[in-house]
Amino acid sequence: MSKTYTYIFLLFIGFQMQAQEVLTLEVAVKIALENNYEIKIATNNLKIDETNNNLANAGILPTLSANLNNNNSQTNTTQTQSDGSERTLNNAKNFSLNYGIGLDWTIFDGLSMFARKEQLAILEAQGKSELQATILSRISDVYLTYYDLVQQQQVMASIDSAIVISNQRVTTAQNRYSIGKAAKLEVLNAQVDLNTDKSLLLSQKELYQNTKTKLNELLARDLQIKFKVVQEITFEESLTYDEMKELANKQNPQLQAQILNKKIVDLNLKQVKGNRYPTVRLTSGYNFTRSEASLGFITQSSGQGFVYGVSASVPIFNGFLQNKREKAAKYEVENASLLLNQQKVALESQIASFYQSYQTNLELIKVEEENVTIAKQNLEITLAKFKIGTITTIEVRTAQQNFIEASVRYATAQYNTKIAEINLKELAGTLSWN
Q1: pTM for the full predicted model
Q2: Contact 216/23 with Cβ under 8 angstroms?
């Protein structure tokens, strides 16, 4: 009966594993692009910039408005005529109505309107750079978290192998103890090592599940969705420093946003200087008027027709505010230049640091791969000697730990290489999300 229950249990576990979806990196990236909240917010911010980039918002187009004024009064009125006589009327009613359409158009303001239009276009371009930066950052997070799960799977596989060996040690120690060829202490040591490995596996599984939750959060989906990831980490070995630096200088989103910010403050200075020039406005419209009075020489009048005119104003003195505003705008231009240079230096420093890590870990992969092979051979020889009783359990445990540590270091070297590769591609703006 126990064998039957065991068989059913194994079938259930197998079914549960098959029920979990295999989440590929490409699918994870696609889900993040569709669901991630920060990407959605950045997309909406870009739409706002696109909406604001128009001629009307820059002040280039005229404004057309409909006007209506209706005034009524009811008063007790006394009028003295030129011959000295008086006219009195209680509750005298007066009425006036004006309505029509008016047009107001600023045709010159020191070219500030054209600077504003160019500024709006740059703000839209800056919004595109910020959206790209947000996408790169969030997709980079997806990449890093995904490959972190792959690495953790490899670590768990190493611990699983250690548990298999520890179980064999316990079985062998118990058999040797039962026939009088080993002390009870050997059995206890083997059992302690087995429990240590099990405890380590539980801790690793907890970290693994928490990382899965983090990935689900990045994908903005149900945190309880179960999935599996691929088993291996793949990486490029042909990245060059000069190529990454050149690409970053051309298309790094943060750098491009800083370049655009410099253009914005340049245009702001141009707008401030434009306040020194005259402002010329055209006005036009078509109005209807009507008025009624209970007392007076004219008791009723009405009219309609076109009205038009031109107005101009020239700033002469405003308490030296113009000079102060231009001075402040020039400081903003200087700060924008400093920030741009700072961004360039920081970007080059980051590329140099990540590229050094990339190269170092590529070499570490080769070393640790060789160490895994050696540690595995050593463990196999040690286990064979242990089974015939020629070495102690301490030597077996040492060989076992050496194999686990070598396997973990190998997985870590692969993951660190991938981290450096992802960060380099993010800085260069070449991290793929299509």
Answers
A1: 0.81
A2: no
